[in-house]
Amino acid sequence: MIITGLRGVGKTVLLNAFREKAIEHKWVALEIEISKHNDDEFKRILARELRRALFEIAPKKKWADRVKRAAAVLASFTVTIDPDGRLSAGLEVEPHEGQADSGALDADLTDVLIALGEAAQAHDTGAVFLLDEIQFLSRNQLEALIAALHKTVQRELPVTLTAAGLPQLAELAGEAKSYAERLFHFPTIGKLEASEARRALAAPAEDNGASFTPAALDIALEFTEGYPYFIQEFGLATWNLADGPSITKRDAEQAQVVVEEKLDSGFFRVRHDRTTELELAYLRAMAELGPEPQLAGAVAELLDRTSQQCGPTRSKLIEKGLLFTPEHGYAAFTVPQFDRYLVRAVPDLIVPRVKKRKKNEEEKEEARVTS
Ligand SMILES: Nc1ncnc2c1ncn2[C@@H]1O[C@H](COP(=O)(O)OP(=O)(O)OP(=O)(O)O)[C@@H](O)[C@H]1O
Ligand SMILES: [Mg+2]
């Protein structure tokens, strides 16, 4: 499955829970946090996990022929990117010529995943890829993975994948697209329901001999809107503030201040700091319009520009993972409540100066022509 959701909704927590399950069932987990890798880096990171996985499938002394073969395919996969042989260290095999060495990522990854699946099968186990921040995969990389998994599924090999990331996934084309639709579930996760959010705070408190008053929970729900990360911080703050064993309305009110300060100087601030002036101006304009997805044209208008002029800034913000496009023409924040933060942190709209000057000139020009 491919799970998508905003920042701080529990995607990574969920992947960790899946890893625990995999280990419980004696499956091998290959965990990768994706970032913007070029194909060689991507291969290198995969190879490192694959190598580890082979040793985990069985101790080398007990390797079935299929595992030895997988090791040879892996050595072949890394031949061009691993001149000093570190990625195949300890495998002690010759590269399996003609396997996984074509240079085409999809074909090579298919060879590798099939070899891995056969190796796992030979030892009555399986392998699960757990990929986080999958929005950073390039289209080519994502398509290659999908093509490879499609093959292992066809052959009924015990290889599967759970990935998580922001709602912005690479646009898939052709076969990859139709495979993906059939291969994966695409659950989205987000805010908790009110009853779940209450339980997320109340249950652990109760387990520890404390309880929230209903008024305190109301404040928590309004403040956090049910976002898991905010609930976590809110719970921590009330726990530290309350005299206990009852966590009161007053505690919750104080917690709001503490949590807001913490988020403003951490969770939100780190994202704010990663923006250029133009990007910040764009985000601030979006915030002015509210938390919902916003039309590119409407944001541009606030900035006194055309959407075309704003295009590069918008793309950059998407690339940085601060915005995503829920539907064509729209952009939305990937960080819950980022709009509110921006209004707090940057009270006034920023209208980029360059344009202002230009506009003055245009006005002067217009005045000159009409006179
Ligand atoms: N099931 C859960 N139990 C306890 N805490 C949770 C749970 N889910 C989420 N949280 C809290 O929310 C925080 C954020 O969760 P997590 O890091 O998994 O989010 P994420 O969706 O991966 O966010 P990002 O997109 O920023 O990586 C956790 O550190 C934890 O405080
Ligand atoms: Mg995460």
Number of strands: 9
* Count of domains: 3
Instruction: Report the total helices.
Output: 16
Q: Indicate the low-confidence ranges by residue numbers.
A: none
Distance between the termini: 66 Å
The CATH topology of the largest domain turns out to be: Rossmann fold
Say which molecules are bound, naming each kind only once.
adenosine-5'-triphosphate, magnesium ion
Q: Which strand-content bin applies to the residues? A: 5-15%
Q: Into which percent range does the helicity of residues fall? A: 55-70%
Rounded to an integer in angstroms, the radius of gyration calculated over CA atoms is: 26 Å
User: So what's the CATH class of the largest domain?
Assistant: Alpha Beta
Please provide a written account of the structure.
The protein has helices spanning 11-24, 39-57, 65-78, 105-122, 139-154, 174-183, 194-207, 214-224, 228-241, 249-265, 267-273, 277-289, 296-302, 307-319, 338-345, 353-370, and strands at 2-4, 28-33, 127-132, 159-165, 211-212, 246-247, 294-295, 323-324, 330-333. It is of the alpha/beta class and 371 residues long. The protein has three domains: 2-183, 3-Layer(aba) Sandwich (Rossmann fold), CATH 3.40.50; 194-265; 270-359, Arc Repressor Mutant, subunit A (Orthogonal Bundle), CATH 1.10.10. The strands form three sheets. The protein has a four-stranded parallel sheet, with helices on both faces. Strands 7-9-8 form a three-stranded antiparallel sheet. The longest helix has 19 residues, at 39-57. Bound molecules: adenosine-5'-triphosphate and magnesium ion. Residues 5, 7-13, 228-229, 232 line the site of adenosine-5'-triphosphate.
